[in-house]
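Appendix B. Chain record.
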Amino acid sequence: MEPPMAKSGRVGAALELRGIEKTLDAMNLLEVKVQERVLTGAIKKAAKPFVKAARRRVPSETGLLKFAMGSVTKKYKKAHSAVAIEVMGPRRNVAGKKAETIRGQAGNASREPANYAHLVEFGTGGHTIQPKRGAALATPDGPFAVVDVEGARPQPFMRNAWSATQRRMESILHVQLSKRVAKAAEDARRQSRERKTRAVVKGTQKLTAKGRRGVGSIVRVGAL
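Structure tokens predicted for this chain:
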């Protein structure tokens, strides 16, 4: 499970799972596609507390960054095992009526929260803006040759959300993995029993049919 990302670096630290070695060993015995289903279901559940906490903490100017907060599951193919990662943070190209309403407001058409979330999280340094074309910059206070911009203070909504929910996420992930692995193992055992039962029934039916054919032949021979 990946901590939320930002262009300036990672936020938080990886979740730690202790005391579930037997669960992980049991999961490794499952088919890869079943492992993938178990992992994706468990990490999706575990990510929910972080998403809710981040939404509560995110500074709101237009509300689009808050609305964009979520998580996305990424799955990778690896020989004999499943790899699934839950990436948490602002979703790119978030859609919906609320997002359309916000983007429909003046100046918000090109807003993409995934492009500036890290600037809110880590802040920005002071810098100077110079015109690329012409001799001056147009501002509400008049044209200027250069404009000094003060830096924005950090507002670590993702780091704070991670710190507040890390133990909760670990607990949920622990419980979800244990429950889902146990269920998958029981399903595999049941399916194995059913396959064996079907094979026995099918074999019995074949023997019965063969016996009937033998009896039929004897009857016909006796009738000649």
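Further analysis of this model is presented in Appendix C.
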